[in-house]
Inverse folding.
C-alpha cells in the first residue's frame, strides 16, 4: 500500500500516521522526492482501512500495490535511486562503464588491465576471484588471493572494484570490496540475498539464467527488505532456443525495469552474447534503451584467458568503445568517471 502525502503535510501528523502503521506490525518506507512525498507500507495491509487513512488531513491519496515486490517498486519510490560507489554514482543517467577480466589471473594481468581501462575512462574494475564454473575441472578462480590482487589494482588505479561472492561463508573477505556481485547462478540463493540485505555493501544483482523480470525483482526485494537500499540490477542475457549467441540479450528488460522499479539497471553484453564483436553494438543499444551503464569483460591477452576468452575484448577495443560511449552520452553535469 502507498500513502501519498499532501504538499506541506505537517511533520507531527506524518509521525503519528507512521506510528499508527508500525504499531500494527507493518513496515514503512518513506520516500521524499522533489515531486512527491510517499509512505510505502509493507506487510499484511488487508486489515488497514484505506478510507480512514484517506480522511486524515495530511493524506492526499491511498493506493494498494498489487505487485508482490514493494520496496523495489517505482510506486513506492517514484524517483530514480542513485547508488553511490565510493564517489561514483550509478542511476538516473549517470552512465558507468565497468571493465576488467572475467577472472583475476595474476598481479601483472589485473594491474595492466586496470591501468588500461582506467586510462580509457572506465569508472570501476571488475574481476572474478571466486568463479562459479559449469565444469569442476575448469579454473575456479584465485579466491582470497584474487581479492588481494584486486585490492592491489584498486590501490594502484583508484578504481572501485566489483567482484562476485559465490558463497556467503566468504563474505568476511569482501570488507574492502566496493561492489559485491551476485551472479546469475546465485540470483535465487535466498539465504545469500537475506544476508546481503543485512550488509551495507552495494550489490550488483545479475539476472538468473532463466529468470523472469518479476523473479529478478523479487530477489532484489529480498536484499532491500533487509535494509540494504544499494542494489543495481544487471541484464546479462537469458536462456532461449537461440544458439547464435551464448545467451539472448533481453534489451527490453531495461525500459521495463525503468518503468517497474527505481533501481539502476546496467547491462553485460559480454555474457549476454559470448562474442566480442557484439559488445560495441549492444553497448549502443543499452544507451538507447536508457541503461545506467555496462559491464564488459576486458583481457590483455584474450586468447590465453583462463575463463571467457572468446567474449573478452582487448584494452584497445575497450578504448574505441569508450570513445564512442563518450560521444553518445550527454552528461550535463553528471559524471562519467
Ligand atoms: C561473470 O560476471 O563473470 C559471471 C560469471 O557472470 P554471470 O553470473 O552473469 O554468468
Ligand atoms: Mn565471465
Amino acid at each position: 500500500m502507498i500513502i501519498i502525502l499532501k504538499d506541506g503535510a505537517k511533520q507531527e501528523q506524518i509521525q503519528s500516521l507512521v506510528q499508527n502503521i508500525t504499531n500494527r506490525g507493518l513496515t514503512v518506507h518513506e520516500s521524499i522526492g522533489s515531486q512527491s512525498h510517499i509512505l510505502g507500507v509493507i506487510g499484511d495491509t488487508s486489515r488497514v482501512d484505506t478510507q480512514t487513512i484517506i480522511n486524515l488531513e495530511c493524506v492526499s491519496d491511498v493506493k494498494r500495490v498489487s505487485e508482490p515486490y514493494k520496496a523495489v517498486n517505482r510506486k513506492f519510490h517514484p524517483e530514480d535511486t542513485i547508488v553511490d560507489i565510493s564517489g561514483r554514482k550509478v542511476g538516473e543517467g549517470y552512465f558507468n562503464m565497468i571493465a576488467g577480466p572475467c577472472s583475476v589471473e595474476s598481479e601483472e594481468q589485473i594491474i595492466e588491465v586496470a591501468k588500461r581501462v582506467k586510462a580509457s575512462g572506465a569508472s570501476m574494475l571488475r574481476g572474478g576471484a571466486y568463479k562459479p564454473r559449469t565444469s569442476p575441472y575448469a579454473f575456479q578462480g584465485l579466491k582470497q588471493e584474487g581479492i588481494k590482487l584486486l585490492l592491489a589494482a584498486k590501490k594502484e588505479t583508484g578504481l572501485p572494484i566489483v567482484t562476485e561472492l559465490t558463497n556467503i561463508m566468504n563474505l568476511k573477505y569482501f570488507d574492502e570490496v566496493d561492489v559485491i556481485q551476485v551472479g546469475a547462478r546465485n540470483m535465487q540463493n535466498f539465504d545469500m540475498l537475506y544476508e546481503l540485505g543485512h550488509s551495507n555493501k552495494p550489490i550488483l544483482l545479475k539476472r538468473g539464467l532463466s529468470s523472469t523480470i518479476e523473479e529478478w525483482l523479487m530477489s532484489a526485494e529480498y536484499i532491500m527488505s533487509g535494509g540494504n537500499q544499494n542494489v543495481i540490477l544487471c541484464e546479462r542475457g537469458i536462456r532461449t532456443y537461440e544458439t547464435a549467441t551464448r545467451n539472448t540479450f533481453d534489451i527490453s528488460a531495461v525500459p521495463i525495469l525503468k518503468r517497474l522499479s527505481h533501481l539502476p539497471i546496467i547491462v553485460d553484453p559480454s555474457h549476454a552474447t559470448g562474442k566480442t564483436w557484439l559488445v560495441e553494438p549492444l553497448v549502443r543499444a543499452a544507451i538507447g534503451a536508457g541503461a545506467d551503464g555496462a559491464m564488459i569483460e576486458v583481457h590483455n591477452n584474450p586468447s590465453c584467458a583462463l575463463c571467457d576468452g572468446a567474449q573478452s575484448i582487448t584494452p584497445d577495443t575497450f578504448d574505441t568503445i569508450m570513445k564512442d560511449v563518450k560521444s553518445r552520452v550527454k552528461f550535463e553535469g553528471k559524471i562519467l568517471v
